[in-house]
Design goal:
This protein is α/β, with parallel strands linked by helices. The chain has 2 domains: 11-37 and 191-331, Cytidine Deaminase, domain 2 (3-Layer(aba) Sandwich), CATH 3.40.140; 49-171, Ubiquitin-like (UB roll). 22% of the residues lie in helices and 29% in strands. It has 7 helices and 17 strands. The protein has helices spanning 110-120, 178-187, 201-212, 216-221, 245-258, 277-286, 299-308, and strands spanning 11-14, 49-51, 60-67, 74-81, 84-91, 98-105, 130-136, 147-152, 167-169, 199-200, 225-231, 236-242, 267-271, 290-293, 311-317, 320-325, 330-331. The strands form 4 sheets. Strands 1-16-15-14-13-11-12 form a 7-stranded mixed sheet, sandwiched between helices. Strands 2-7-8-5-6-9 form a 6-stranded mixed sheet, with helices on one face. A two-stranded antiparallel ribbon has the order 3-4. α1 (110-120) crosses α5. The radius of gyration is 20 Å and the shape is flat. The termini are far apart.
Length: 332
Amino acid sequence: MGRVTDRRAVVHIDTGVPGDARRGTQIAARGSHPSGTAPTPAAPTASTRTSAPPAVPTQTSTAPTATVPNATVVRRMDTLAGEEPLEIRVGRPGEPRRPLAVTMRTPGDDLDLALGFLFTEGVTTSAHDVVTAQLCAGTDTPNTYNVVDVTLAPHVQPPDTDVSRNFYTTSSCGVCGKASIDSVRTRSSYAPGADALTVPAATLAELPPRLRAAQKAFDLTGGLHAAGLFTGGGDLVCVREDVGRHNAVDKAVGWALRNGRIPLGGHILMVSGRASFELVQKAVMAGIPMLAAVSAPSSLAVDLAEEAGITLVGFLRGATMNVYAGADRIAA
Protein backbone atom coordinates (compact mmCIF):
# COMPACT_ATOMS: atom_id res chain seq x y z
CA MET A 1 0.00 0.00 0.00
CA GLY A 2 1.30 3.46 -0.86
CA ARG A 3 1.78 6.21 1.70
CA VAL A 4 -1.41 8.09 2.46
CA THR A 5 -1.16 11.76 3.39
CA ASP A 6 -3.74 14.38 4.29
CA ARG A 7 -3.20 17.74 2.59
CA ARG A 8 -5.01 20.81 3.88
CA ALA A 9 -4.57 24.56 4.12
CA VAL A 10 -1.71 25.61 6.38
CA VAL A 11 -0.60 29.14 7.29
CA HIS A 12 3.20 29.41 7.20
CA ILE A 13 4.79 32.27 9.15
CA ASP A 14 8.36 33.54 9.03
CA THR A 15 9.07 36.15 11.70
CA GLY A 16 12.68 36.76 10.75
CA VAL A 17 13.78 36.05 14.34
CA PRO A 18 16.87 33.81 14.59
CA GLY A 19 16.22 30.40 16.09
CA ASP A 20 17.98 28.32 18.70
CA ALA A 21 20.21 25.82 16.93
CA ARG A 22 21.42 24.03 20.02
CA ARG A 23 20.79 20.29 19.83
CA GLY A 24 18.41 20.71 16.95
CA THR A 25 14.84 21.41 17.95
CA GLN A 26 14.39 18.82 20.68
CA ILE A 27 13.22 20.56 23.82
CA ALA A 28 13.08 19.14 27.31
CA ALA A 29 13.05 20.81 30.67
CA ARG A 30 13.72 20.12 34.25
CA GLY A 31 10.37 19.14 35.71
CA SER A 32 10.05 21.80 38.36
CA HIS A 33 10.64 25.46 37.55
CA PRO A 34 11.81 27.66 34.67
CA SER A 35 14.97 28.59 36.55
CA GLY A 36 15.83 24.94 37.13
CA THR A 37 15.42 25.40 40.89
CA ALA A 38 12.29 24.02 42.49
CA PRO A 39 10.13 26.76 44.03
CA THR A 40 8.52 26.52 47.44
CA PRO A 41 5.38 24.41 46.86
CA ALA A 42 2.14 26.34 46.93
CA ALA A 43 -0.27 25.46 49.68
CA PRO A 44 -2.84 22.88 48.57
CA THR A 45 -6.45 23.92 48.22
CA ALA A 46 -8.66 23.47 51.23
CA SER A 47 -10.09 20.27 49.82
CA THR A 48 -6.83 18.73 48.62
CA ARG A 49 -3.98 17.38 50.74
CA THR A 50 -0.94 15.84 49.10
CA SER A 51 1.96 14.08 50.75
CA ALA A 52 4.99 12.05 49.70
CA PRO A 53 7.69 10.12 51.52
CA PRO A 54 11.22 11.47 51.34
CA ALA A 55 12.67 8.49 49.45
CA VAL A 56 11.40 8.41 45.87
CA PRO A 57 12.78 7.15 42.54
CA THR A 58 15.29 9.44 40.86
CA GLN A 59 14.78 11.40 37.68
CA THR A 60 18.06 10.20 36.19
CA SER A 61 20.41 7.25 36.54
CA THR A 62 23.83 6.28 35.22
CA ALA A 63 25.04 3.38 33.13
CA PRO A 64 28.39 2.34 31.65
CA THR A 65 28.76 3.04 27.96
CA ALA A 66 31.37 2.86 25.26
CA THR A 67 31.68 5.76 22.83
CA VAL A 68 33.65 5.56 19.63
CA PRO A 69 35.12 8.92 18.61
CA ASN A 70 37.51 8.66 15.67
CA ALA A 71 37.64 4.84 15.80
CA THR A 72 38.83 4.90 19.42
CA VAL A 73 36.71 3.20 22.08
CA VAL A 74 36.28 5.30 25.22
CA ARG A 75 34.49 3.81 28.20
CA ARG A 76 32.67 6.11 30.58
CA MET A 77 29.51 6.51 32.65
CA ASP A 78 26.53 8.10 30.92
CA THR A 79 23.50 9.79 32.47
CA LEU A 80 20.13 8.35 31.43
CA ALA A 81 16.57 9.58 31.84
CA GLY A 82 14.72 7.57 34.45
CA GLU A 83 11.75 5.47 33.34
CA GLU A 84 9.62 3.48 35.76
CA PRO A 85 5.97 2.41 35.98
CA LEU A 86 3.56 4.47 38.05
CA GLU A 87 0.28 2.92 39.16
CA ILE A 88 -2.62 5.28 39.90
CA ARG A 89 -5.25 3.93 42.29
CA VAL A 90 -8.53 5.66 43.09
CA GLY A 91 -11.41 5.30 45.52
CA ARG A 92 -13.77 7.30 47.69
CA PRO A 93 -13.41 7.68 51.48
CA GLY A 94 -13.99 4.40 53.24
CA GLU A 95 -13.66 2.41 50.02
CA PRO A 96 -10.64 0.45 48.80
CA ARG A 97 -8.34 2.12 46.29
CA ARG A 98 -8.58 0.26 43.00
CA PRO A 99 -5.96 0.37 40.22
CA LEU A 100 -7.07 2.63 37.37
CA ALA A 101 -3.94 3.23 35.28
CA VAL A 102 -0.31 2.30 34.88
CA THR A 103 1.92 4.72 33.00
CA MET A 104 5.61 4.54 32.15
CA ARG A 105 7.04 7.83 33.36
CA THR A 106 10.13 9.65 34.53
CA PRO A 107 9.96 9.82 38.35
CA GLY A 108 9.34 13.30 39.71
CA ASP A 109 6.20 15.42 40.10
CA ASP A 110 4.27 12.16 40.43
CA LEU A 111 1.38 13.70 42.35
CA ASP A 112 0.96 16.35 39.68
CA LEU A 113 1.05 13.58 37.07
CA ALA A 114 -1.72 11.65 38.82
CA LEU A 115 -3.87 14.75 39.38
CA GLY A 116 -3.38 15.91 35.78
CA PHE A 117 -4.13 12.47 34.37
CA LEU A 118 -7.38 12.14 36.32
CA PHE A 119 -8.41 15.64 35.25
CA THR A 120 -7.56 15.35 31.54
CA GLU A 121 -9.26 11.94 31.39
CA GLY A 122 -12.44 13.42 32.88
CA VAL A 123 -12.38 11.47 36.15
CA THR A 124 -12.23 14.75 38.09
CA THR A 125 -13.34 18.25 37.12
CA SER A 126 -11.64 20.38 39.81
CA ALA A 127 -9.20 20.20 42.70
CA HIS A 128 -12.19 19.89 45.04
CA ASP A 129 -12.89 16.45 43.59
CA VAL A 130 -9.75 15.11 45.31
CA VAL A 131 -9.50 14.66 49.08
CA THR A 132 -5.96 13.29 49.23
CA ALA A 133 -3.24 12.18 46.82
CA GLN A 134 -0.37 10.23 48.33
CA LEU A 135 2.75 8.62 46.92
CA CYS A 136 2.92 5.12 48.38
CA ALA A 137 5.42 2.30 48.61
CA GLY A 138 3.26 -0.25 46.84
CA THR A 139 4.05 -3.96 47.20
CA ASP A 140 7.57 -4.01 45.74
CA THR A 141 10.59 -5.02 47.84
CA PRO A 142 12.57 -2.87 48.25
CA ASN A 143 10.07 -0.03 48.20
CA THR A 144 9.92 1.77 44.87
CA TYR A 145 7.27 4.40 45.63
CA ASN A 146 5.72 3.78 42.23
CA VAL A 147 2.09 4.00 43.37
CA VAL A 148 -0.14 7.04 43.86
CA ASP A 149 -3.26 6.56 45.98
CA VAL A 150 -5.96 9.14 45.23
CA THR A 151 -8.98 9.54 47.49
CA LEU A 152 -11.85 11.04 45.54
CA ALA A 153 -14.43 13.28 47.18
CA PRO A 154 -17.67 11.51 48.18
CA HIS A 155 -19.63 13.23 45.39
CA VAL A 156 -17.31 11.99 42.63
CA GLN A 157 -18.43 8.92 40.73
CA PRO A 158 -15.49 6.49 40.70
CA PRO A 159 -14.37 5.43 37.22
CA ASP A 160 -14.87 1.91 35.96
CA THR A 161 -11.81 -0.01 37.13
CA ASP A 162 -12.69 -3.30 35.46
CA VAL A 163 -9.37 -4.82 34.43
CA SER A 164 -10.47 -5.07 30.80
CA ARG A 165 -10.98 -1.31 30.63
CA ASN A 166 -8.02 -0.06 32.67
CA PHE A 167 -5.64 2.47 31.16
CA TYR A 168 -2.13 1.40 30.24
CA THR A 169 0.08 4.09 28.76
CA THR A 170 3.64 3.89 27.50
CA SER A 171 6.27 6.59 27.30
CA SER A 172 5.78 6.90 23.54
CA CYS A 173 2.01 7.22 23.40
CA GLY A 174 -0.87 7.63 25.76
CA VAL A 175 -4.47 6.56 25.53
CA CYS A 176 -6.56 7.81 22.66
CA GLY A 177 -9.06 6.75 20.04
CA LYS A 178 -12.63 7.31 18.92
CA ALA A 179 -13.98 6.93 22.44
CA SER A 180 -11.62 9.65 23.62
CA ILE A 181 -12.79 12.03 20.87
CA ASP A 182 -16.41 11.55 21.88
CA SER A 183 -15.54 12.01 25.55
CA VAL A 184 -13.85 15.36 24.87
CA ARG A 185 -17.04 16.62 23.23
CA THR A 186 -19.13 15.64 26.22
CA ARG A 187 -16.80 16.05 29.22
CA SER A 188 -14.84 19.25 28.76
CA SER A 189 -16.15 21.99 31.03
CA TYR A 190 -14.47 24.76 29.07
CA ALA A 191 -14.72 26.38 25.66
CA PRO A 192 -11.19 27.36 24.58
CA GLY A 193 -12.57 28.38 21.20
CA ALA A 194 -14.17 31.42 22.85
CA ASP A 195 -10.86 32.60 24.35
CA ALA A 196 -9.84 36.06 23.13
CA LEU A 197 -6.10 35.33 23.30
CA THR A 198 -3.98 36.94 20.58
CA VAL A 199 -0.23 36.34 20.40
CA PRO A 200 2.30 38.10 18.15
CA ALA A 201 4.22 35.72 15.92
CA ALA A 202 7.47 37.15 17.28
CA THR A 203 6.42 36.15 20.81
CA LEU A 204 5.72 32.59 19.70
CA ALA A 205 9.15 32.44 18.08
CA GLU A 206 10.73 33.15 21.48
CA LEU A 207 9.06 30.23 23.26
CA PRO A 208 11.35 27.36 22.17
CA PRO A 209 14.59 29.02 23.32
CA ARG A 210 12.94 30.11 26.58
CA LEU A 211 11.85 26.57 27.27
CA ARG A 212 15.22 25.25 26.12
CA ALA A 213 16.98 27.48 28.64
CA ALA A 214 15.26 25.55 31.45
CA GLN A 215 16.30 22.12 30.15
CA LYS A 216 18.71 21.09 32.89
CA ALA A 217 17.82 17.39 32.77
CA PHE A 218 17.88 17.33 28.98
CA ASP A 219 21.39 18.76 29.15
CA LEU A 220 22.32 15.68 31.19
CA THR A 221 20.42 12.99 29.31
CA GLY A 222 19.25 14.22 25.91
CA GLY A 223 16.21 12.00 26.39
CA LEU A 224 13.28 13.92 27.88
CA HIS A 225 10.23 15.67 26.51
CA ALA A 226 8.99 18.94 27.96
CA ALA A 227 5.69 20.73 28.33
CA GLY A 228 5.69 24.40 29.25
CA LEU A 229 2.82 26.69 30.16
CA PHE A 230 3.33 30.26 28.95
CA THR A 231 1.27 33.40 29.38
CA GLY A 232 0.08 35.20 26.29
CA GLY A 233 3.00 37.57 26.77
CA GLY A 234 5.52 34.73 26.58
CA ASP A 235 6.33 34.30 30.28
CA LEU A 236 7.06 30.72 31.34
CA VAL A 237 4.98 29.88 34.42
CA CYS A 238 5.43 26.11 34.65
CA VAL A 239 7.60 23.50 32.98
CA ARG A 240 7.46 19.75 33.42
CA GLU A 241 9.49 16.96 31.82
CA ASP A 242 9.08 13.27 31.22
CA VAL A 243 10.07 10.49 28.84
CA GLY A 244 6.42 10.60 27.72
CA ARG A 245 5.15 13.80 26.14
CA HIS A 246 1.63 13.10 27.42
CA ASN A 247 2.98 12.66 30.96
CA ALA A 248 4.80 16.00 30.75
CA VAL A 249 1.52 17.69 29.82
CA ASP A 250 -0.36 15.92 32.60
CA LYS A 251 2.28 17.06 35.09
CA ALA A 252 1.87 20.66 33.95
CA VAL A 253 -1.92 20.47 34.07
CA GLY A 254 -1.75 18.81 37.50
CA TRP A 255 0.43 21.68 38.74
CA ALA A 256 -2.14 24.17 37.45
CA LEU A 257 -5.00 22.22 39.03
CA ARG A 258 -3.26 22.03 42.39
CA ASN A 259 -2.57 25.78 42.31
CA GLY A 260 -6.08 26.85 41.35
CA ARG A 261 -5.20 27.97 37.81
CA ILE A 262 -7.71 25.86 35.88
CA PRO A 263 -9.05 26.79 33.36
CA LEU A 264 -5.87 27.94 31.67
CA GLY A 265 -7.46 30.64 29.57
CA GLY A 266 -5.01 33.08 28.01
CA HIS A 267 -2.18 30.54 28.14
CA ILE A 268 -0.06 28.70 25.58
CA LEU A 269 0.98 25.07 25.92
CA MET A 270 4.39 24.51 24.32
CA VAL A 271 5.54 20.92 23.76
CA SER A 272 8.90 19.58 22.68
CA GLY A 273 7.89 17.04 20.06
CA ARG A 274 5.00 16.43 17.74
CA ALA A 275 1.43 17.52 18.44
CA SER A 276 -0.68 14.39 18.73
CA PHE A 277 -4.43 14.14 19.09
CA GLU A 278 -4.03 13.32 22.77
CA LEU A 279 -2.13 16.53 23.51
CA VAL A 280 -4.86 18.58 21.84
CA GLN A 281 -7.39 16.62 23.89
CA LYS A 282 -5.60 17.50 27.12
CA ALA A 283 -5.43 21.18 26.09
CA VAL A 284 -9.18 21.18 25.49
CA MET A 285 -9.85 19.62 28.88
CA ALA A 286 -7.71 22.30 30.60
CA GLY A 287 -9.22 25.19 28.65
CA ILE A 288 -5.95 26.07 26.88
CA PRO A 289 -6.60 28.08 23.68
CA MET A 290 -3.22 27.57 21.97
CA LEU A 291 -0.92 24.56 21.53
CA ALA A 292 2.50 24.99 19.92
CA ALA A 293 4.94 22.24 19.00
CA VAL A 294 8.41 22.15 17.50
CA SER A 295 7.42 19.26 15.25
CA ALA A 296 4.45 18.19 13.15
CA PRO A 297 0.84 17.63 14.18
CA SER A 298 -1.17 14.57 13.23
CA SER A 299 -4.27 14.78 11.07
CA LEU A 300 -6.50 13.86 14.01
CA ALA A 301 -4.86 16.57 16.13
CA VAL A 302 -5.71 19.15 13.46
CA ASP A 303 -9.29 17.87 13.24
CA LEU A 304 -9.83 18.18 16.98
CA ALA A 305 -8.13 21.59 17.16
CA GLU A 306 -10.41 22.92 14.43
CA GLU A 307 -13.49 21.49 16.11
CA ALA A 308 -12.57 22.83 19.56
CA GLY A 309 -11.41 26.24 18.30
CA ILE A 310 -7.83 25.78 19.50
CA THR A 311 -4.92 27.41 17.71
CA LEU A 312 -2.51 24.67 16.68
CA VAL A 313 1.04 25.67 15.73
CA GLY A 314 3.55 23.17 14.38
CA PHE A 315 7.19 23.31 13.27
CA LEU A 316 7.81 26.26 15.60
CA ARG A 317 11.51 26.55 14.92
CA GLY A 318 13.26 29.85 15.18
CA ALA A 319 11.75 32.39 12.83
CA THR A 320 9.19 30.14 11.17
CA MET A 321 6.08 28.17 12.05
CA ASN A 322 3.04 26.55 10.46
CA VAL A 323 -0.41 27.34 11.83
CA TYR A 324 -2.81 24.46 11.21
CA ALA A 325 -5.88 25.79 13.04
CA GLY A 326 -6.98 29.07 14.58
CA ALA A 327 -4.59 31.32 12.65
CA ASP A 328 -6.68 34.37 13.61
CA ARG A 329 -5.04 34.32 17.06
CA ILE A 330 -1.58 34.96 15.56
CA ALA A 331 -0.81 38.65 15.18
CA ALA A 332 1.79 40.01 12.79
